[in-house]
Amino acid sequence: MPIKIPNNLPAAHILEGENIFVMDSDRAYSQDIRPLKILILNLMPIKYITETQLLRLLGNTPLQIEVDFIYTESYTPSHTPQEYLTEFYGTFAEVRHKKYDGMIITGAPVEMMPFEEVAYWDEISEIMEWSKTHVYSTFHICWGAQAGLYYHYGIPKYQVPEKIFGVYKHHLCVEHEKLFRGFDDEFYVPHSRHTENHREDIEKVPELTILAEAEGDAGVYAIANLKKRQFFITGHAEYDPLTLKQEYDRDEKAGMNPKIPQNYYPDDDPTKKPVVRWRSVAHLLFANWLNYYVYQETPYVLDELYKEEDD
Question: What is 48-82 written as a DSSP string?
């Protein structure tokens, strides 16, 4: 089944070129089906890149999905034209009366700052509070995961001595968890961050379960409040094959002397083509989230979501 996205969204042409089934709004309205409604709070500066990465994964399932994008009013991104935001994005004020089957909160290039010093912290805090009664399952990625853990559970982040950068081997910490159904005993996921959450802080919160972690210095990878269907993912399974290369080349050109991403280039040689080890992981992770924690459990009449809390 296709993913429904706004008419003329640039990501549509990229996805169609990859044989991902997409459907514009006009065609979707002609189908008699109840699509899953997914809200994406895109905090990344170059919006279309993150859109394409996420839509590629959301669109590769048997489900029809309708996506709304929002950005923060309290901080307007400088790398995306306002005309683009006006055409394809809304604001929280425009969607706060709605309810959603699922929500994705992306990473953001602000991880070195204390949460309270981020320009849009008050706004994203309001959105995360709202998500508790208006979204059936919320999927937080990288800084979005750290922000969610801090806001909901008071779990701090810590700066690491050296950037966590590369493709790391992971293993599961629990058995028979639906989010990781079909995963191998070992699997690889990219990470790119300067901060981390500590296992001991997470283990102090009874509602949270550590689902998976990485070997080496990448630490905890997936944390969840399974009862509330909140997921906090510290890595970037959605990354494109060349995303880490682009970060490395950018920092090398800027004279920052970056370390070579781990487990990425053959023989750690940046002149060679990177090896993609995480593509199947990404598709399975998002498909499992959509199927087991959104589609299978969310009420058919979405307005009835958390109806008792509203009354």
Answer: HHHHHHHHHHHTSSSS-EEEEEEE-SSS--SSS-H
Residue 247 lies in a domain: no
**Residue 265 DSSP symbol:** S
Domain range enclosing 11? 3-160+172-239+281-310
Is 97 in the active site? no
Is 13 an annotated catalytic residue? no
Compute and round to an integer the Cα radius of gyration of the chain. 19
For 89-138, write each residue's pLDDT tens digit: 999 999 999 999 999 999 999 999 999 999 999 999 999 999 999 999 99
Q: Please check whether residue 213 lies inside any domain of the structure.
A: yes
Instruction: Establish whether 142 is a catalytic residue.
Output: yes
250 among the known binding-site residues? yes
CATH number of the structural domain spanning residue 84: 3.40.50.880
For residues 172 and 239, give the distance between their C-alpha atoms in angstroms, rounded to a whole number: 21
Task: Count up the domains in the chain and report the number.
Answer: 1
Q: Is residue 258 part of a domain?
A: no
List, in order, residues 6 or more apart from 211 with CB less than 8 Å away. Answer: 172, 173, 174, 177, 179, 180, 221, 222, 223, 224
Catalytic residue among 142, 152, 177, 191: 142
Closest Cα partner for 179 from 73, 302, 285? 285
Residue type for position 283 = H
Look at residue 255 and tell me if it is in a domain: no
Under the banding of pLDDT at 50, 70 and 90, the label for residue 53 is: very high
Output the pTM of the full model: 0.88
Q: pLDDT tens across 192-239, in order?
A: 999 999 999 999 999 999 999 998 899 999 999 999 999 999 999 999
